[in-house]
Specification:
Length: about 250
Amino acid sequence: MQLLAKASFDPIKDKLWAVGDLVARGPSSLQTLDYLRSLEGAFETVLGNHDLHLIAVYYGISTPKANDLLDELINSNQFEDHIQWLRSKPLAIRIDKKHLLSHAGLYPDWSFKQAIKYSNEVSCVLQSANAKAFLEQMYGNQPSVWQESLSGHDRLRFIVNAFTRMRFLDKKALEFKQKCHPNAAPKAIKPWFCVKNKSLKSHQKVTFGHWASLQGETHNPQFIGLDTGYVWGKHMTLYCIETSDFFTTSV
């Protein structure tokens, strides 16, 4: 809220877009959801891996981790309402012709149009009566390479992993072992944004979060990393798409 004030955010005329992971690790997940939902039409978000995990916890498929600090949210009388609200959110949003938003990024074989199509596939299931069955099969690292012929739970699992867990690629395979800064990673793997995407046009930009250790260092103006390690005691970052200005604050 302090950073929004610093950026002169006005919910009457501005819109706030979030890159996901609205919950977990911080001490105030419940208050965060309460505040963001109070913005109504002035706020929109994609889902991150922590948000999906919370939904799985609600369905009894997974258990909360102690360091996620979710007890207050889970025990509140608003928990179910917040879960239903999260279920309505997508994995990717195309803000306009130029800007795509997702939690982890854009898999290099996908165009903006394909990204929204695949996001919609997951949203349809997550918002349906089959949500629990989907969530029961959501966890896992395989398949690691995209093929349009993928179907069923394998297809949905890859889409979820690409949008919410991706950092490095081994050629075109999702690589989940490394969470470090690229400078400290094995040379055989590359950040996803360093793998050529023939479908990405020169004017298009991908805005993402997820990768705290990256510190937003993509070294390419097409890829805007906004997770700058606030939860680890570093900075929170906002980006204005009209002006390309960044706003940052420290804890």
